[in-house]
Specification:
168 residues; mainly beta; 6-stranded antiparallel β-sheet
């Protein structure tokens, strides 16, 4: 109206977090909660409005539609692993219990052979209507032990990206 942009469409948020240490992938689902940090390498950047996280559970700063992606760099540490599953999980009760958890994206892969590294990439669009109770977390599991998520404090190996596309 009158050439004005509605305030709900403003408030840009672009944020990226990475794990800084390797995390073993076990035979039961585990949260990816290993030493998340906001990217800070020269040349990387985020907006002033940022996603926060505690123990691998991410909280959105403002309502809106977000593109959430997870990129996992996975390495074999001992034997071939046929089945590794990564998930993006959403909660509307801040992960107080599992009653409102919903898997929004999932990928499946294995690490075998002479080049035992793979990349899992998954993404989803999240409609954030509550900045108090809506959270995102990432999980990983394998059908056997012998693999890990690779972390780094200087480059993005295993990382998550949050992009607020628009307000609601």
């Amino acid at each position: 109206t009158n050439g004005e942009v509605p305030p709900a469409l403003l408030s840009p948020c672009v944020d990226q977090h990475r794990i800084t240490a390797d995390q073993a992938i076990t035979a039961s689902a585990a949260d990816i909660d290993s030493t998340w940090e906001r990217v800070d390498t020269t040349g990387q950047g985020t907006t002033t409005l940022q996603v926060s996280q505690t123990s691998g559970k991410f909280l959105f700063p403002v309502t809106g539609i977000y593109l959430v992606s997870l990129h996992c760099q996975i390495a074999r540490t001992s034997t071939n692993i046929d089945l590794i599953t990564a998930k993006i999980i959403h909660s509307t009760n801040a992960f107080v219990d599992d009653s409102t958890n919903t898997t929004l994206a999932q990928t499946v892969l294995g690490v075998t052979g002479t080049l035992p590294k793979e990349v899992a990439a998954l993404s989803t669009v999240v409609n954030v209507t509550s900045t108090l109770n809506q959270r995102i977390k990432f999980t990983i599991e394998a059908d056997a032990t012998g693999s890990k998520l690779e972390g780094s404090s200087s480059i993005n190996n295993t990382y998550a990206t949050f992009l607020r596309v628009t307000g609601t």
